[in-house]
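Q: I'm writing up a methods section and want to include an example of the input and output format. Could you take the sequence below and give the corresponding predicted structure tokens, formatted cleanly so I can copy it straight into the document?
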Amino acid sequence: MFITNSVLKDIDTIFHLYEVATQMQAAKGSVQWPVFDRQMVTTEIAEHRQWKMLAADGSIACVWATTFSDPLIWQEMNDAPAIYIHRIAVHPHYRGQQLVERIVTWAKQYVKEQHKQWIRLDTVDENKGLIQHYTRCGFHFLGLSPLKNTEGLPSHYNNATVSLFQLPV
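A: Here is the clean output for your methods example:
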């Protein structure tokens, strides 16, 4: 597997993976992702914040986005030197192949290159399956945090409580 930035020609595949992930969320009774704004993803691609993991055959196994600040979700804890990982979406063919662990390995190096100290991520609600998965990947579950201001966040964050995770590097 190889990790690199997504490019504009990947955008249809990215949205397909988001759709597949949303279908899985619905099947599990979890909070579902909304249809994300294409301009938001286009901006992430242009700013080199949208990533992809490529399989040996060149197909996209999974995608995710990063930021260096996430004040609406992390609120008063946002000042820490961290990268924030969002919207991990795995192609169904590659589920169960420890791709989040591979993202963590990559992120540890990326954090060092960016002179940060933490890898952080969140999930909406108390998703027990993801809590277990992310803690198995090395993240510390910090608990649930009700969001105070969701203006500007995707709609699945409206009136939400989020599970927060971080991993020191």
